[in-house]
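Example complex used in Figure S2.
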Amino acid sequence: MNERPARSGLEPLARAEAPAAAPRPKTIRTAVRINIRGRSVRLRGLRLPSTSIWRWLAILGPGLIASSAGNDAGGIATYSSTGAQYGYELIWVMLLITVSLCVVQEMCARLGAVTGRGLLDLIRERFGVGWAVFAVGVILIANGGLIVSEFVGIGAATELLGVSKLFTVPTAAALIFYLVVFGNYWRVEKIFLLMTLVFFAYPIAAFMAHPHWGEVARGAFVPKLHRDSNYIFLLVGLIGTTITPYMQLFQQSSVVERGGDRIHYGSERVDVYSGAIFSNLMSIFIIIATAATLHAIGKNNIDTAADAARALEPVAGHFAGIIFAVGLVGASLLAAAVLPLATSYAVSEAFGFSKGVGLDFRRAPLFFTLFTGLIIFGAAAALIPNVPVIKLLVWIQVLNGVLLPIFLVFILLLINDQRLTKELKNTRLYNVLGWTTFAVITLAVAIMLLMQFLGLWGVKLFGS
Amino acid sequence: MLSTFLKLRVFDDSGRRCHLDDIAVELLERDYPAVTYLVYRNSGRDRMMLTWQAVTGIDWGRARINVNNFDAAQSVMDESSPQEVLLKRDVLDALVLDLNKRLATRANDLLLEEENGKLLLKGADTSSLAILRRLSHRLFGSGPSRSPCDWKYIEFLRGHPHAVRNGAGYHMRIKRLPPGEIAGLCNSLPYLHAAELLTLLPHEVAAETLAAMMPDRQVQLFGELEDKQAVRLLARMKTNDAVNLLRRLTVESTTSFLKRLPKARSDKLVDLLRYPEATVGGIMTNDMVVLALDQTIREARLRLHERLKQTDFTHFLYVVESEASPVLRGTTSLPDLIVAEDERRLDEIMNIYVTTLDPLEPADSGAYRVLNSHLAAMPVIGHEKQLLGIVTVDAAVMQVAPQSWTVQAPKIFS
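Predicted assembly (878 residues):
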């Protein structure tokens, strides 16, 4: 009989055969040879940085996906309105905003890495409770508006599919509350993210609509200013939807959440730049697609979601409405869950209240009250009848644009605080770009407010 | 309350007055630090500090602090003593650790009380009422705070590990908590605060605390420690905790730490780092008690006595051929060794039927074999049957359990 060695434990160790080689793991790491006190040793147990494309995908992936989802209801409404009203003429603004977005978001990422703290937390400690309350007020207004816009987006999208918003908006609010508080939101989040991928149809639609590329290039590189108040209004809306105060809060806290630190700071910068560029590229394609389809046929006003969806007709034909609705529902649900959560976290952080979805109403009453209140407020406001949907969405983005300079000042003061940021404080170039962004946005906001104010008395600025 | 106190005006004997800007306390290890200086701005807007001894009385009714003479004041130096902090600038609104409630919170206001002619910092008001009181200038929320946290149980962190090395004062009650709870508190703090907390703990506690944190957090905090302290912690961590941390560092950092650790410790870590993470060798520890076959029970107990202080896993004792030849011959348990007669030999009481693992076996299958065997640990042997290490039940659980669970799972062995 051909005897096979017995498994260990059946024979005394002294008499047992040497153990047979066990099946090896499928992949064994490359050994690293190091020298320790004159002894050369080969170590296979060290984690080596990946050199493959996966490493880059790991760095860029989250930013790219998040930026694709960042084109939520308000964003799509604003970009579509821009394309429909002014064709390609405002693309140059998007290029400048991209630079500003890169600068602002990178400063927030750096603040997060160098301090390990959120923006409102830093404002509280550096500027005191009064300024913290002011900043919290600003963020509640800005994010409150955005939450309304997300529920408006959900309602508009589902009505495109023939289901009344009176049913879908409260259902979505209840679903979000349940998933975040009792369920596993982070698992469902992936489904919402997948739904937003249909917005990749915009670049395809932009090409298939055969735009006049010469005009597109002219719109991108030859600034053309209009003197009408609507132009300034949309300009502020474009800024407000692209560089929202919420994005700064989110950027900083996501770096903190991912464990970024000042020693290893670097890959976050790549993530921020690529995310900002990619996100704005998508926005530009939305403008081009809308300009080539709606503006080209003289349809300058977008009043409903169905109007906005028509920009996808070159790629989706009769299914444009469905494609648009699916993407809009995904993006809106995603933002409608994350926005109240991020706001509640930031506010609780600023005041030192208990926070976290792992707790309950009893242990974190203010956190949960705020979270619940924001969802109820957003859903209730979205159900107000006879509201011009697209206009409301654009107004909310304008409101964000108006509030943006306040946050920019805080960010610029904090990032230049030597005690806080030490060797990672702003370079001169960054300061120039940062303060210029602040000055231009403030000027645009001031002109817009002045025009609106004078408009009440029928006075027109610039004689237009 | 500090917010009220800062509203007082300071008057000297000759009737000169100024606005109080801040007050300084010396945060040494005492429970309730006393106010040491008043900080104010003089007519030339210079920041001046006046020692508390110059205070002759506080007139709450007229909202004034009476002092001898402003002439005794000195200008505020940039370089103050590291133990000294300014309550408004440094502590008010700052993150503090409430050890009673085991959470990181904010000092929304500070409770000051006069006692024997001294003004003592007695507590921190972390409630939302304190914010309301400050914002409304005491119009609302001015009643007594419901539950100010006793300052004795507050740990105030500066947000910089260097503060510990510079001799800043701490209560140090935090070191009385179990390392798992300290790790939980560290996780709720910004990483520089957490690194400061780790720096102020005794090395043994700090090493256990670091080991109880999430892997990414460990790497983040480890990077903030001074090299000397990092080496000390690595030297005190359980071997496979240390290995798990080293594998996440860069090759250069790992090499540098291995060179600086004591040779015996470094050799043990290198032996474990030879094996890929996904293998049994990658999850085993070589920190166990090894006894030579020819020893008597009495000799073995003496040997055990020396090793017990250093070794992590002592439930099973591993009997090898001799000190020079680590070929595994059997195992015995600690209770068996204790109850055996002194003159008997180890080979008489040891179990020679031992189930073993191969170091290059996949970690998951090795872990399941340990769990299915219901043993506290299983030895890992090489081709020459030499003892390389053991896989403990804890390591096996960590290998197969979901990551979210592993952080909370109690660890008895390596």
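Residues 282-406 of chain B form a domain with the CBS-domain fold (CATH 3.10.580.10). The mean pLDDT of chain B is 84.
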